[in-house]
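Can anyone check this?
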Amino acid sequence: MLLPHRKDYYLLFFVKHTSGRHWVDMTPYAHQDNTLYFTNPTQILVNEELAPAWGTYLGFTREFLALQPTAALQDLPLIQNPHHGHQLRLNTTEAAFVEQVLAHLETEYYRPGSWQHQLLSAHMSVLLTYLSRLYTEQLPGPDAAADQRVLTAYQAKVEEHFREVHEVGAYANLLNLSARQLSALVKAQSGKPAIKHVHERLVLEARRLLVYSEQSLKEIAFGLGFSEASYFSRFFKRETGSTPLEYRTSRPPRKMS
């Protein structure tokens, strides 16, 4: 029986040797040796043919990316996946490099200690950056269309102004578009509402500050443009399922460098 299912995390599957086939959304992928398959959260997966496999699975969450010191990993082509690809063919040298980094990750994962998080982050940064280079080489895609350029410009404006600008209409004015035009273009190109981009960026920054800084909840709220700490708390709980205080106390304390 074919059982469609979703993952709530990013999944990388490096196949050294196997057979069979799986589907990502409506696209089939016949398994090939020395190939890396990857999916993003919420996509529908179906394992059509099960077969013995020699390789390595690696899963990581949006939260893991959000807790990195910079937003660079979230912006990598492999994570953004603008061309909706889900496999990368690796030559002998590329496969050996990927295997080596995966081995380092496995070693650190089973070696807890004060340096574990930093080393896991460093190895993940190397892996995702390397795979993103392969992504751009193998899935170059056409030149960005006008609508894609609007999305890119919108994301850049959000990155620049998210602390003080929370409304889509204000971003539309910055881009010389109507709010209706911007909302439609962003939803068509990214698959999610324009306001969601703003909310996700606010949550990302809030998570960083809650984990890495000693700022009070009130300081974080005002720094992110909320007029009341209570409003910030309601917003954060709506977006994440936990209050800022619950989120902070559930994470080991760290300081920003």
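Reply from J.R.: I decoded it. The two ends are 51 Å apart (CA to CA).
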